[in-house]
């Protein structure tokens, strides 16, 4: 009961699979991240999940490949495409060992990092815009200073009719 209460309150999605690649447990956050009803996921194999929910194919394929290699631990960024758009997940897994002679499974934790990735991308574009604005502004300063020097140098030497033209040309 304690472990179930902890899993229910996590914002990360947590699932466990048995050696048959059957989904044994899943917390509500996993269903929410995937945008699927929790009760429809439990008890299904990865193959069934792929058939029933095409958006889960990248996740199921990654899990199956790690099952095949018998990797102890793994971590991978997985992108899912569904009705709600693109979701970027960081998935970490570790192999479960239940004792001598018992078959193994995996526990997998999925974190939706889509918002974080978008925020990083927006920050990067803001930095590009800031630097570009600086580069555009930078050459204008020496040009403006040169125009002011020309104005000061020739203002007193020009006939009165040309002073207004020089003023207009150097103050824009």
**Helical content band:** 40-55%
Poorly predicted parts: none
Q: Give the overall shape, derived from the CA principal axes.
A: rod-shaped
Whole-angstrom Rg = 31 Å
**What number of structural domains do the residues give?**
2
**Secondary structure tally: strands:** 5
Protein name: histidine kinase
Domain PAS: 1-46
Pfam family, one: PAS_4
Catalytic activity: ATP + protein L-histidine = ADP + protein N-phospho-L-histidine
Walk me through what this model shows.
The protein is of the alpha+beta class and 172 residues long. The chain folds into 2 domains: 111 residues, Beta-Lactamase (2-Layer Sandwich); 50 residues. The chain is 53% helix and 23% strand. The chain has 7 helices and 5 strands, in the order H-E-E-H-H-H-H-E-E-E-H-H. It has a 5-stranded antiparallel beta sheet, sandwiched between helices. A hairpin with a 5-residue loop joins strand 1 and strand 2. Helix 4 packs antiparallel against helix 5 and helix 6 runs antiparallel to helix 7. The radius of gyration is 31 Å and the shape is rod-shaped. It starts with a helix and ends with a helix.
């Amino acid at each position: 009961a304690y472990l179930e209460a902890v899993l229910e309150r996590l914002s990360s999605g947590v699932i466990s699979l048995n050696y048959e690649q059957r989904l044994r447990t899943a917390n509500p956050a996993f269903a929410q991240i995937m945008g699927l009803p929790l009760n429809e996921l439990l008890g299904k194999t990865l193959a069934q999940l792929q058939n029933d929910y095409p958006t889960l194919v990248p996740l199921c394929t990654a899990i199956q490949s790690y099952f095949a290699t018998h990797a102890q631990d793994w971590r991978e960024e997985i992108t899912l495409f569904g009705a709600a758009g693109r979701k970027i997940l960081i998935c970490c897994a570790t192999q479960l060992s239940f004792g001598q002679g018992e078959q193994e499974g995996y526990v997998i934790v999925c974190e939706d990092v889509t918002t974080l990735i978008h925020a990083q991308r927006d920050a990067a574009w803001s930095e590009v815009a800031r630097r570009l604005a600086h580069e555009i502004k930078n050459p204008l300063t020496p040009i403006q200073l040169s125009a002011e020097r020309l104005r000061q140098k020739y203002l007193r030497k020009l006939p009165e009719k040309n002073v207004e033209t020089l003023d207009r040309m150097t103050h824009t």
